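Lecture 7 notes: from sequence to structure.

We start with a single chain of 326 residues. Read the sequence below before looking at the structure.
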Amino acid sequence: MGKIKKIGVLTSGGDAPGMNAAIRAVVRTAVYNKIEVMGIRQGYQGMIDANFNEMNSNSVSDIIQRGGTILKTARCEKFRTPEGRKKAYDNLREAQIDGVVVIGGDGSFTGARIFNEEYDIPFVGVPGTIDNDIYGTDYTIGYDTALNTVVEAVDKIRDTASAHNRMFFVEVMGAEAGFIALYSGIATGAEAILIPETRGESRDLKKMIETGNKRKKSSNIIIVAEGEQEGGAFAIAEKLKDDFKEYDVRVSVLGHLQRGGSPSAIDRVNASRLGHAAVEALLDDQKSVMVGIQNGEISLVPFRKAVKLHKDVNHDLITLAEILSV
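Now the structure, written as tokens:
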């Protein structure tokens, strides 16, 4: 691979607050290094459709504080096929793009890894997902903002729960990973937290709530990760409502509220660091790797590991949550 003269940048998969900060960092780091930048709109679909737009420093002005992604995002079944990837490669070659920064999650990195096994245009990934579930990085773009959004919402729910002697089951995102549920549960003083990582373990939710009731709590907040094996917040609330007739049982599903909003300072700074590091990795002839943050430092992780290996929650925090809920 010769000297990189032009790169592309795209966002793929679910949007996350801070993606715009990462795009901004990619573009401005490239401009600083006298490299041309093409924005690829609508993720891999835009690569197949040759939906490319030239970007410069002005293109990314006034976006660091905005949620979502100015490049838009989409899921693309065609990129899963050899024919789709060949079309994408041909379009990149025609546009004279020498390398691509992919901002997304493990599905996006899987596509990039396969593409790099077939073609010689290097791809570097930036972890962008509110779930914080990508192996090889302590942090993913959007997680901190989503977490703060959940905490703010649950604090408000507890106010009304206390006023009306209500029990709230609050469902948060994280069908496969309980990072949001666990951390927000500890941060809000939830009476119980149900996450995928504790499936198969002894979880007597009724006993946990009864323990709290011995202190005559005026409210109960139970945080439930979506996709819970017991059926999610509505199903769990339905099972338990007859056991706690002294409470008015309610369910609140926060849903896509968690994806939106202006990114936090941490998301803005870390997204900027990762966007910058991705361009530096391309300049260092890196290929098929994700840039991450481990112990506060930038790290490089092969897509193969980032996608294949499992990132687990800190089980000491699960124990802590149980202790603090008595």
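The longest helix spans residues 143-164. Keep this in mind for problem set 3.
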